[in-house]
Amino acid sequence: MVSLSNHLSVLRQALQPGSGEPQDERNNHPFSGQLPSIWLAALIVCIASILPFLSTLPAYFLGDDFGLIWLLSQKPPLHFLTLFTSPWTETIYGYRTDELRPTLALSYQIDGVWAGAASPIAYHVSSILFHVVNSLLVLGIARRVVGLKVLASGFAGVIFALMPVHVETVSWISGRADSIPTIFYLSSFLTYAIWRQKGTGFLYMASIVLFFFALFSKQSAITMVGTLALYDILVNRKLPWASWTQPLGYVPYGVLTAGYLGLRLALFNNAVREEMLSMNKVREFWDLQSAYLQMLVSGVYFPRFDTAMQIIAVVLCGLILLVAAIELFQRKRERRPLSWTMLLCFGPAWWALSVIPLLVTNYLSSRHLYLASVGLAIVLGLAFEMLWSSRNRLWHYSGAFAGITLVLGYTLVLLWAVGQWNGVAALSAKISSDVRQEALTAPEGSLLVLDVEGPGATPRIWTWLWGFSLPYALMPPFEPPEVTKRVSIISPPYAYCCQFAQWYEHVRNTTVSWSARTDSPPVIILDWDDSTGPPTRRSDSEQPQLRKQVQTFAGAPSPEELHKMLDEVLRQVDGS
């Protein structure tokens, strides 16, 4: 991976005044005048990135965390090198994924070494640090690329740090699948932009290397060429065809993108999951834009506001496009620090390029908006600078009031959202403890039926609980081997790691083995509600009909029928 010193060098370059600032300020020595204030802004951004998430440090594992840590904690140190040509999750979810993510795997391996695979603290420390780096990169882009002054750049960085939409990315360990790719994506973009301004060859090479790692962090990085071209057109005011040398800067990025897509095609028989594309997907993707916008702006989702959000978004985008088009084709091409074309670049254009990879999946998850939120933070920084720099006192103080209100509002919502994730993590830890205790004290050979949810029952925001976590959550390094050796365990399909058909075979085979025992061990059902109190425990000694009902699972003719049978048993137990 790219060394920390390279990232610090990029940030040091980025924190200098941008091309949009007055010439006399740009000529200042990097360590004079503006530097103390920019470092103060960076410190404030770091604090804003860290403090709201400190409470997550002891939060227990959730969802995908179990399988990924179980897999990668067993690997040798250099295992990540093999993942440039093989799926990083192998077949732990019952099928071979099409994801080449060695950088993510390496982060799990490092965290598992320095604090132990079974401790969540190391993983959460890293997740927070990834968020800190991204917040500083937003500060750097606002300062160096957009040319905002220190106060507005710091405001953009703080806003990004405090956006409630980031709660899943930072609070959930597996959310690093979006924060790590964003580090490389933003670093590559920032170094490219500084290279265009200064012509420093080292920065151009650094940008290409960072882009390489962005690709092998997440496939959505293939949009980088479009991002760089739009930056040149809208911010640098240089059309790609204006000179024969202009497009040459994109060639290495294009070659890397083509090579990466070719590698995916050779390994997985798809380049961008194109087999999933259809007109229905396109319609679903359009319908989801209002939900994405709601989550991006507020961190929560209210379905009844979908239509209103679509209308507002279309009107705002139309206004920005109209004004930007007028300015873009004006004869005067002078550089201005607060350009409507910059609003276009970091508004609709950045949004489109950031969310277009979701077209093939239509995921409705806030962490997939992590990169898209960078554009909103920059746009809000631009708006703040416009108001704060106004000679009209009303606009000036309105900007200050709006900025403070937004920061406080985001902080309150973020703290609430973090609390929701921490609550679900506490329930996850309680479930693990209860299952361990029951497995070690129940008669040997008992069948435990875990009535555990996949997502958490948290209003307005999505949280994981034990979705896709079994059987890994009950295996080393999370639990001692005795847990699964002494008892057999089944659950509803959404808590099982693999595909529906595999869950079906697992439950049937487990039920057959349990029923065949001559010592007739009991069946025990454990059920948890949204609190962290003791679970509800039912066994066939209290409800004799349970044994016959569970034994019928072995003869279920299909996965769907088995799911109905299991749900019926769990409902009867709940009703009792």
Biggest beta-sheet profile = 4 strands, mixed
Number of strand elements: 4
Backbone CA Rg? 26 Å
The overall number of domains is 2
Describe this structure in words.
This protein is mainly alpha-helical and 576 residues long. It contains 21 helices and four strands. A hairpin with an 8-residue loop joins strand 3 and strand 4. Helix 3 runs parallel beside helix 7, helix 6 runs parallel beside helix 9 and helix 9 crosses helix 11. The longest helix is centred in the C-terminal third of the chain and has 49 residues. The chain starts with a helix and ends with a helix. About 6% of the residues have low confidence.
Task: Annotate the secondary structure layout.
Elements: H1 4-14, H2 23-26, H3 35-50, H4 65-72, H5 102-115, H6 121-145, H7 150-162, H8 167-171, H9 176-198, H10 201-215, H11 224-234, H12 251-268, H13 279-298, H14 306-328, H15 340-355, H16 372-388, H17 393-441, E1 447-451, H18 482-486, E2 488-490, H19 500-515, E3 523-527, E4 536-539, H20 545-551, H21 559-575
Parallel strand pairs: 1-2, 1-3
Antiparallel strand pairs: 3-4
Helix pairs in contact: 1-9, 3-6, 3-7, 5-6, 6-7, 6-9, 7-16, 7-17, 9-10, 9-11, 10-12, 11-15, 13-14, 14-15, 15-16, 16-17
